[in-house]
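Q: What would this chain look like folded?
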Amino acid sequence: MSRVVHIGDNVARITVGHHQLNAETRSPEPKTHTAPLEDLDAVVLSTLDGLDLDLHTLVAAAQHSTAVIVCDDRFLPVGVLLPLFGAWNHTEILRAQIDASAPRRKRCWQQIVRQKIREQSRSLDPDSGTARRLSVLADEVRSGDVNNVEATAARLYWPALMGPTFRRQPGTRLGLNGALDYGYAIVRSLVARCAVGVGLHPALGVHHHSRTNPLCLADDLVEPLRPLVDRVVSSNPERFTDALDTTGKDLLRGLLELPVRCGEHRGLLATTCERYALSFRDCLTGETDTIEFPEYDDR
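A: My prediction, written as structure tokens:
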């Protein structure tokens, strides 16, 4: 399995010594965490608080065939430092991603839409008629979702989850819609980082396509995770009545710490999402036929 290290706001400095990557945390109780560079496929730098690193660290990463991914202030990947030589197979993965056949891309999208609708069903009262109807709809999704079952499910889902007067309006930045947008953005950035971390190009989606969107693949992969955001927002409507405040943002940032399972792996969403990206990559490139999706672990 690919191993990716995420460097966040709690890290002040990264160095390399004796072929080990050293991550020094910030005060008041600084600690140093280490990992062998030769075991790492990628290091993701996503911090708003600044980070101390030098050229020697970047050179060492390249020499050990470790990719370094740089994220912007929205925690979205904007660049990748790749080794010119060594074992990192980014070119091979990129070629396989580009060469993936249309039927395989459509089957991947079929699985994604099915999982999204199943998660929407799980967000509702299991005894409700809408939940049962969504479960049936999930099984009706065909390759490529040619009948747009996703849209049919959405028309049933939102009134059942949020109430009959609710209208999903992205970009409003207020109330429940603003909270949903913020939560989706957090999960989207996580998915984008994980996709790049396993060697996929985030602009090459299997369903979403746009010349101006560098994260079409992230928009594909985030779909089955949206209901996780929906549950948090719908369970705390009193927190999201106006413009999103600090308390509401903190609640939504907690999404990354949700306990989930992905296949046999259990952990937080922030760590399990890597397994999801790797599983998708293997399915897209023909190594497997089934994608393993993160699901809320209430055990």
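Strands lie at 4-7, 11-17, 20-25, 32-36, 42-45, 67-71, 77-81, 259-262, 265-268, 295-296.
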